[in-house]
Amino acid sequence: MTTIAPPVVRTKEPSRSSGGRSGSVLWMALPAFVWFVIFGIVPLLGVLALSFTTWNGIGEIQPSGLDSWKATLTDPGLPHALWVTFLIMALSWAVQTPMSILIGVFLATSKRYREFLAVLFFIPLLLSSAAIAITYKALLDPNFGLGTGLGIELLNQDWLGNSTLAMATLIFIVSWQFIPFHSLIYQGAVRQIPTSMYEASQIDGAGRVRQFFSITLPQLKYTIITSSTLMVVGSLTFFDLIYVLTAGGPGDATRALALLMYQQGFQANLMGPASAIAVILVLVGLGLSLLLRRLGGRGDESQLEGA
Amino acid sequence: MATVTSHRPSPTVSGTPGGTRKRNKAMSYNWLGGGLSWVWLFVVMLPIYWIVITSFKTQANYFITNPLAPPSELTFENYKTVIESDIVRYFINSVIVTVGAVIPAVAVSFMAAYAIVRGSNSRILRGMNWVFLMGLAIPLQAVIIPVYLIIIRLQMYDTLAAIILPSIAFAIPLSVLVLSNFIRDVPKELFESMRMDGASEWGTMWRLAFPLTRPALVTVTIYNGLGIWNGFLLPLVLTQSPDQRTVPLALATFSGQFGVNVPAIAASVTLTTLPIVLLYAIGRRQLLSGLTAGFSK
Amino acid sequence: MTNNPISRRNFLGLAAGAAGAAALAACGSSGPSNSGGGSTGGGGGAASYWSLSGPPGEPYRQAAIDRFNKANPDSKITPTFFQNDAYKQKIKTALGANQGPTMIWGWGGGGLKEYVNSNQVEDLTDWLAQNAAVKDKILSSSFGAGTVNNKVYALPVETVQPIVLFYNKEAFSKIGAEPPKSWGEIMSLVPKFNAQKIAPFSLAGQSRWTNMMWLEFLLDRTAGSEVFDRVFAGEKDAWSDPAVLDMLQKVQDLVKANGFIKGFSSIAADSNADQALLYTGKAAMMVHGSWSYGIQKEQGGNFVKDGKLGWMNFPPVEGGKGDPTNTVGNPGQYLSISSKATAEAKETAKKFFSTTLVDDEEKAGWVKSGGVPVLKGAESLFTGDDAQFLKDMAGIANGAKTFAQSWDQALSPTAAETLLDNIAKLFQLQVSPQQWVDAMNGVIGK
C-alpha cells in the first residue's frame, strides 16, 4: 500500500497460488447466482424460446421456427436501431466523461460553496424519467418554453421534431441527469490521489494542465473504467426516457434497440420478433462487457478465464 | 502493511485526508473546472427552478404566464391535492422498496464478486461470471411477463416484496461486474498476508476486501438505488392496489385520459425529492468518505 | 415441436417451472388462478373492473361502481384505475399472463379484434338479443367498433367523441375572415393568418395520432369512407387509390405552406400545449377531439365563457366524393367481459351492463362530465353553459352518415404502429406520398 504508482505493477504469481481454494469461496457466489437465475435467466430462456414462435402477446403461442428471426434480421429498422443505440452510447459517453472528470476535479476540494454546489448537482438524479420528460417537454416547447421565457428566439427550435436536434437534445438530457452521478464518483477518486504526487511535480515546475495529464488522469484510470462501464451498459437498456421524451421520433431518429423491441412487442403485438431483438440486445451487452474488460487492461484475467 | 484491516488505510504516510484537501490552495484557481461547474449549475438548476415555480401555479394560468416567471399569486392547491392523494404513503413504499432491494442486492453481489475473483480458477465460478455478464443487458420489458408469472406463483402479487425480489435480481449483474473489477485490483500480496495470518476467506472478504472496495460499494449502491427508486415497470405490473404504489406510479395518477396536470406533477416531484436532497446534504460527508476509502483507485 | 399451438400458460409455465426450485414446483402445473389479476374479492359473484384514471372520466366510472355495489352487496365489483399509457401496458401484460380482470375497458376496433382472435373476450351477441331493452338504450352507431365479424364483443359505454375543427373567433375577426367552408378556403386563409403572425393551425405533432386526424378527414372528404373500409377489410393494395395520393399531397402542401404552427413536431398533446395555442390566440384553428372543449374551458381562463371558441365539422373538399356530414373519432368507449372469468363473475358483469351502465344517473353523469353519452335521449339534459356545444356534438355524431372510428384504433396494433410511424414521417416531409402508400400497403391485413 505504500506504492504510489498505479497498482498495475503488481506481480502475477500470487494469483496462481491463491486459486486453489475456489471450493471455499464457491458458496459465496450462490445467493446472487440463484437469485439471478430465478428472476433473470429463467425469464431470459423464456424470451429465447419465444423468439422461435409467433405470439401476439395475448393469444396462443405458435411455434414458427426461424420466422421471427428472419423477419427481425431482414428488417431495415434493426441496423438503424443498432446505429442509434451505438450513437447514443458513444455520444453520451463522449459528453459525460470529460465533463464529469472536470467537474469532479473541481468539486474535490472541500470549500463550503463547492459542497453546496455538489448538493444541487445531485438533484437531477432523483427525478424519474417521467418527471424529466414532462419538465423538458415543457421547457423545449417551441411556443411556451425556454425561448419564450427568456425572450431568446434562438431557443425556440424544433428541439424534438428535427432528427439531429432530437438526438442532441436526448444526449443533453441524459447528460443532465447523469453527469452529477459520475462527477460524484470522480470527486471521490480525485480526493484519493496522494497529495505528495502533486507536491513532487510542483517542485519540478509542472503547471496545472501538465499535472492533470501526468498525475490526475492516469490515477483516475480505473475510475474511468468503472464510470464508463456504468454509462455504456446503462445506455443499452436505456429506454424509459426515450420512450416518454420522443417515443423514438421524429420518425425513427431516436429509436434505439430497446425501444424498437418495446414497440414491436407491446405496441405492434409482435412478441416473436421483439424477443429476437431482446436476445440480440443481451448478446450486444455481453460483447460490450467483454470488450470493456479488455480495454481495462485486464488481459491477464481474461486469458486465465479462457475467454 | 499487515495492518490493512484499518478501516481507513492512508495511501501514503504523509497523505492524510486533511493534507489531500489542502493541496489545491497551493495552486492557482482551476478556471476550466470552475467555469464549467458554474455553467453546469445554471444548466442543472434551470429545470429544477421550473419545477418548483410551476408547482405553485394553477393549471389555469400555467400556459398563460411566462414559463420562467414565478407565479404572481402563489397557490398551495397543488400540494394539497398531492398530499390528499396519499403521496406520503407512496413515498414510504418507495423507501421500503429501494432500501429493501439495494442492501441485499449489493451484499450478495459483493459476495459473488469476491468469489469470482478469488476463485478464478474454478470452472463453475467462471461459468457463473458468464451468466452474470449475460444479464447486463436484459431488457426488463422483454422478460416482464415471465417475471409476472413467477411472482404470481410465489403468491406475492400486489405486495412490495413483488417489486423487491426482481429488483434485486436485476441489480446483480452490473454490481458484480463493477465490484469484481475493484476486488481484482486489490494487490494479491494482501490476500496472501491475510492467509498467512490464518484468516478464513469469509474473514478476508469482510476485513480486507470490504473496506478496500468501499468506493465501489458506494457507487453501485447509489446507482442501483436511483434505478430502483425511479423504476416504473415493475411496480406497475407487479402491484395493483393503491396501497402498494410507489412514487413513480403516483406521478401517473396526475395524468388524465387526455392530458397531464403539470403543476400537480411538479408539486409531487418537489415534495418527494426534497426529503432525499436534505438527507443527501446531511449525509454527504459520510458518502464522500465512503468514496475515498480504500487504496489508490 | 408439434404444430399444435402451445397454450400460453404451459409455455410460460415451462419457463417459470424451469426454475426448478422446490417452492415453485409445489405450485406445479395448477398454474395461477384465473380470477383476474389479484382481484381480492373472493365472494361468489365478485368481479374486477379495470379502467382509466383521472379526469374527466374516473369520478363517473367510480360512481357507477358505487351505485352497483350498493344495490348488489353480494356481488361486488372491485375497480382499479390506471393512467392511460400505464393501462395499455398493464392490461397487455395481464392478459398475456392470463391474469386479466373480469371487465376489460377498451377502445374497440382493432384492439378488440385482437382480443377476439385470442379468445379473451365473451361474445355478447346472444345476450344482447335476449336483452333488447339494453341494446335499445344505446346509440346504434356506437356498436360498430364493438363488433367483430358481425358479433358484438363489447358494450359501448361512456361518451361519443367526434373530432371537430375548433377555431378562435378573435383570430378570425383580426384578419376579417369567416371560418372556412371548404379546403380551398383553408388554403387561402393560411397566408392571411401567417401575415398576422398567427399560426393557421395548432398541432401537437409529436403525439402522431393528432396528425392522423387530418388524414382521416381529408381522405373521407375527397373519396368517401369506402377507401378506408377496403383497408380495414384487408384488401390487397387498398391504399393504392389515387384519392389517397391526392389526400397525402394536400397534407404536405399544407405543411409546406406553413399551415401548422412552427415547431409542431416538438409539441406533445399530453400537456395540452396544442390547445393552449388556440386559446392564447397563437393559433387560429385546431382539429381535435371533442374532449378538448372541457380542457379549454378549465384551463383557458374566460376563453370559452366569453364565447371566443368556435367549432364546426371539418369542411368539404372541392369536388370530393365524401359526404360532408361524415365524421371520425371515438364512437364510444367499450367494455368487454373476459372469457377467462368465472361464470359467477360474468353474471355480475352482465348485471352491471344491463342495470347500472344504462341507467339515467349514468347518462346524467356523462353529460355532466362534458360529453355526449352513448345512451339515447340525452338531449334534454343539455343545459347551462355547455348546452350549445353538447347539442352540436350530438348533432354531428347522430347526423353523420358514417361515424368512422379513428384509424389507429380501428386497425390492428401492428398496422396502427406502422401507420402512426409513417404519418409522422409524412408531416416531417421525410417520405413522399408514394412511399407512404407503399409502406402502408405492406401491413394491410396484418
Report on this model:
The complex is a heterotrimer of chains A (307), B (297) and C (446). In chain A, 70% of the residues lie in helices and 1% in strands. Chain A has 15 helices and 2 strands. Chain A has a domain at 86-255: MetI-like fold (Orthogonal Bundle), CATH 1.10.3720.10. Chain A is globular, with a radius of gyration of 24 Å. Chain A has a two-stranded antiparallel sheet with strand order 1-2. In chain A, helix 2 runs antiparallel to helix 14 (271-295) and helix 13 runs antiparallel to helix 14. The model of chain A is unreliable at 1-20 and 299-307 (pLDDT under 50). Chain A has 307 residues and is an all-alpha fold. Chain A has helices spanning 13-17, 22-50, 67-74, 77-107, 112-122, 129-139, 146-150, 163-192, 195-203, 208-219, 221-236, 240-245, 257-267, 271-295, 299-304, and strands at 53-54, 62-63. The longest helix of chain A has 31 residues, at 77-107. Chain B has 297 residues and is an all-alpha fold. Chain B folds into 2 domains: 28-75, no CATH class; 85-292, MetI-like fold. The two termini of chain B are 17 Å apart. Chain C is α/β, with parallel strands linked by helices. In chain C, the strands form 3 sheets. In chain C, strands 7, 8, 9, 10, 11, 13 and 14 form a 7-stranded mixed beta sheet that branches. Chain C has a 5-stranded mixed beta sheet with strand order 2-1-3-12-6. In chain C, strands 4-5 form a two-stranded antiparallel ribbon. The chains are: A mainly alpha (307), B mainly alpha (297), C alpha/beta (446). Chains in contact: A-B, A-C, B-C. The B-C interface holds B 59-64, 144-146, 148-150, 152-154, 157-158, 233, 236-237, 240-241, 249, 252-260, 262 and C 12-13, 15-16, 19, 23-24, 27, 32, 37-38, 40, 52-57, 80, 82-86, 89-90, 93-94, 96-97, 99, 269-273, 276, 280, 289, 291-292, 295, 298-301.
